[in-house]
């Protein structure tokens, strides 16, 4: 993950942590509940900003975060539609608070919003962590995506999985790999099936 993406993700974790702290300290104060809800929504958008930077390598304008998240994260299948709905709900909460529309946010609702923010930030963190395990290096394995700093191509592992090798067997075959590495391989293949299928087909033609 690049440094800027990491900064946004750390902000998201800290903001969500602060929201939980304030909610626990003054759960019955409506003003605190609204501030907590605003912080939880902010944490979700900070996490999204970090993810988009990790994918695209550049900052995204705040007004474009929702559409960028939909186009670059949800449509390619990196995260499910439910993640987009969670972000839309967070946007609605911010609008509700800014324009003072609807009923005040009470402690029970604030608690649900904070729990959702925790879940969302964890989902983003896990997704970024998985993708950080897959790298491309010029001159290594023909430039194909490999696991971490190894020379083991993703397509090799996917092909072996398709042939029936279990994770336990793969971990024995490749002792330098961890279950988290194989999880990242599966996520990468889910996101980019055409790339990996073409690499497998090319290798079969060479053989």
Distance between the termini: 36 Å
- Judged by helices, strands and strand pairing, the structural class is mainly alpha
Strand order of the largest sheet: 1-2
Q: What is the number of beta strands?
A: 2
- In this structure, how is the largest beta sheet organized? 2 strands, antiparallel
Radius of gyration, CA atoms, in whole angstroms: 20 Å
Strand residues, percent? under 5%
- Mean of residue pLDDT values: 87
- Give the proportion of residues in helices: over 70%
Number of helices: 9
Q: Could you please describe the fold and organization of this structure?
A:
With about 210 residues, this protein is mostly helical. It is built from nine helices and two strands; from the N terminus they run αααααββαααα. Strands 1-2 form a two-stranded antiparallel sheet. α5 crosses α8. The chain is elongated, with a radius of gyration of 20 Å. The protein starts with a helix and ends with a helix.
């Amino acid at each position: 993950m690049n440094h800027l993406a990491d900064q946004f993700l750390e902000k998201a974790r800290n903001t969500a942590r602060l929201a939980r702290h304030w909610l626990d300290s003054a759960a019955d104060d409506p003003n605190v509940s609204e501030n907590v809800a605003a912080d939880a929504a902010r944490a979700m958008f900070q996490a999204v900003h970090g993810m988009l930077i990790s994918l695209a390598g550049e900052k995204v304008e705040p007004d474009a975060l929702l559409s960028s998240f939909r186009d670059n994260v949800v449509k390619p299948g990196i995260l499910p539609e439910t993640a987009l709905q969670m972000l839309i709900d967070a946007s609605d909460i911010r609008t509700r608070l800014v324009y003072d529309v609807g009923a005040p946010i009470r402690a029970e609702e604030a608690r649900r919003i904070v729990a959702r923010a925790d879940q969302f930030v964890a989902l983003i963190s896990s997704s970024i962590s998985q993708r950080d395990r897959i790298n491309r290096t010029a001159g290594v394995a023909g430039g194909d995506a490999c696991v971490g700093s190894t020379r083991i191509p993703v397509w090799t592992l996917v092909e072996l999985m398709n042939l029936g090798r279990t994770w336990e067997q793969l971990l024995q075959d490749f002792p330098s790999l961890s279950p988290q590495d194989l999880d990242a391989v599966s996520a990468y293949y889910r996101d980019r099936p055409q790339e990996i299928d073409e690499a497998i087909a090319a290798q079969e033609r060479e053989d």
